[in-house]
Specification:
The complex is a heterodimer of chains A (113) and B (110).
Chain A lengths: L3 E4 L2 E4 L5 E7 L5 E7 L5 E9 L2 E4 L6 E3 L9 E3 L8 E8 L8 E2 L3 E5 L1
Parallel strand pairs in A: 2-11
Antiparallel strand pairs in A: 1-3, 3-8, 4-5, 4-9, 5-6, 7-8, 9-10, 9-11
Chain B lengths: L3 E3 L4 E4 L4 E7 L6 E7 L6 E5 L5 E3 L2 E6 L4 E6 L8 E8 L6 E3 L3 E6 L1
Parallel strand pairs in B: 2-11
Antiparallel strand pairs in B: 1-3, 3-8, 4-5, 4-9, 6-7, 7-8, 9-10, 9-11
Classes of the chains: A mainly beta (113), B mainly beta (110).
Chain lengths: 113, 110
């Protein structure tokens, strides 16, 4: 059964701790994306990757880091430098970076206190 | 000017009404456009891609106006189940940087 798996669904952390959000896909899609959504707002692009071992910053990359060592995986680390990390994080994939729509995972709700 | 901007809403309409949303984008070279639907606290779901010649899927019609740099979504004969937030997405630089508008909330009332 093909899909995008984000885990965990809910995550709680103390301020000052780094936390890594998982995103795995078995759709064989080339491109992967991380978005952040705050209540009542649209999705903002954090990082995206069109190919293994390469990724680009989105509009709000500060305080985040990613890696793309395998085609199937695109983990996002929220570092202690991110000032307001509490948000809904969505991972997405697309078949390629040309005219292909995004497919989303179920998201991870991160709460930092 | 925001890279991608939508009507803020909310739109409150009665069942059976026709409603239209617009989404403007900043880069005239943009080529890929999509409309998504998002229900409360869920991930966005693809509603339809937007093609240059315009396209229709049942009660939904998407249009692209390159001269004025906007896309639109028309919903005819609104149903209660159409209540959701509608998000436009634009590939701004044709390099896979897919940017969302802030979303337009639609509430269809009986």
């Amino acid at each position: 059964d093909g899909g995008i798996t984000q885990s965990p669904k809910y995550l709680f952390r103390k301020e000052g701790q780094n936390v890594t959000l998982s995103c795995e896909q078995n759709l064989n899609h080339d491109a992967m994306y991380w978005y952040r959504q705050d209540p009542g707002q649209g999705l903002r692009l954090i990082y995206y990757s069109q190919i293994v071992n390469d990724f680009q910053k989105g509009d709000i990359a500060e305080g985040y880091s990613v890696s793309r060592e395998k085609k199937e995986s695109f983990p996002l680390t929220v570092t202690s430098a991110q000032k307001n990390p509490t948000a809904f994080y969505l991972c997405a994939t697309s078949r390629d970076s040309h005219n292909s729509p995004l497919h989303f995972g179920n998201g991870t709700r991160l709460t930092v206190t | 000017r925001k890279e991608v901007e939508q009507d803020p809403g909310p739109f409150n309409v009665p069942e059976g009404a026709t409603v239209a949303f617009n989404c403007t984008y900043s880069n005239s070279a943009s080529q890929s456009f999509f409309w998504y639907r998002q229900d409360c606290r869920k991930e966005p779901k693809l509603l339809m891609s937007v093609y240059s010649s315009g396209n229709e899927d049942g009660r939904f019609t998407a249009q692209l106006n390159r001269a004025s740099q906007y896309i639109s979504l028309l919903i005819r004969d609104s149903k209660l189940s159409d209540s959701a937030t509608y998000l436009c997405v634009v590939d701004l630089d044709q390099g896979g940087k897919l940017i969302f508008g802030q979303g337009t909330e639609l509430s269809v009332k009986p």
